[in-house]
Every structure is written in C-alpha cells, then in structure tokens.
Design goal:
single chain; 165 residues; Glutaredoxin; 2 domains; 11% strand; binds FE2/S2 (inorganic) cluster
Length: 165
C-alpha cells in the first residue's frame, strides 16, 4: 500500500496499521447522514490527532470537501490537530489552581518529561497541556492524566503521578 507508506512518512506518529483501521472505519460510515463528527472522533481515537493528511483522507472517503472537514475539526475543542502522547497530562492553570502554585507543577512536569507545554515525549508516552479550570477547584491544585484526576497536589512531588503510567 504505497500511498499509506507515503502518508506515514509524511505525518508524525501515524502508522500504516492506523491508516488501515481508519480506512475500514471510513467504509463503515460512508453514505450515513451525519457521520462526519462521529467518524472524526473515531479517527482521533485511532490516530491520536487529526493532521491535514488525515482530514483529507476522511474528506476523500466521505466524498466531501477538505474545507468542510477542517471547519468541523477547528470548531470543536475536543478535536486536535497536534499529536498527543498515549497519556495526556493536563495541568489546571485556572485561578484556584494557579494561586496554589500549579504553574510550578507545570514547570516540574515539563522538566521531568523533558518537553515543553504542547509537546510529546520522544517515546510518545506523554504529552503535556495546560487547561483552564477542570471543575474541581475544591481540590486545587489539580492535574489529570488521561481519565485520572489528581487533586491537592504538592508542587514539589507532583511529578510522582507519572510513575503510575
Ligand atoms: S481552577 Fe483548577 S480546577 Fe478549577
């Protein structure tokens, strides 16, 4: 499958297996009204993110314009066009957390993972993001790793949460 290999080489973190799975999902959704958003959600689950090449593949598969796909991806905040690690580490930088030194937590995690905010570790295991209020201000300062929430963190020892992954 020469085309898949070309895309794999061109797009960071996307493997041939991911593209094969995506192609079979596209076939399942083709011709179903209202399928763009659920298909993009599946595409993001499979590929981890939605770069332009994946958006184009979805557009071609559904026979719609790439600009329509881009419009949806850029509109909804749960879609990302940047690669993410297997475990996404999100540190709350909302006011309640910030006054309890969540910026220090972010700095320490950044140092420990050796990546800046918005980046992915070389082994693709972690990515680091800042978020505005996770809705758990009573537990400030708060960070989440994937689906796991960690509250009342000590800025100095907060990096210990990474040991769980
Ligand atoms: S400000 Fe951090 S959880 Fe609300």
């Amino acid at each position: 499958m020469a085309e898949a290999r070309t895309i794999e080489q061109a797009v960071e973190f996307i493997t041939t297996e991911m593209l094969d799975e995506l192609d079979s999902v596209i076939v399942d959704y083709r011709g179903t009204p209202g399928s763009l958003i659920p298909l993009l959600q599946r595409a993001q689950e499979i590929c981890g993110y939605l770069p332009a090449e994946i958006q184009r593949r979805v557009a071609d598969g559904l026979e719609i314009s790439p600009s329509m796909v881009y419009g949806v991806v850029s509109f909804y905040s749960f879609f990302t066009m940047k690669p993410r690690g297997k475990h996404v580490v999100r540190v709350c930088l909302g006011t309640a957390c910030y006054v309890k030194r969540s910026d220090e937590i972010m700095q320490n995690l950044s140092k420990e993972l050796k990546i800046a905010v918005g980046e992915v570790t070389g082994d693709k295991k972690f990515s680091l993001e800042g978020v505005r209020c996770l809705g758990a201000c009573g537990l400030a300062p708060v960070a989440v790793v994937g689906e796991d929430t960690y509250g009342l963190l000590d800025p100095v020892t907060a990096t210990d949460i990474l040991k769980n992954y």
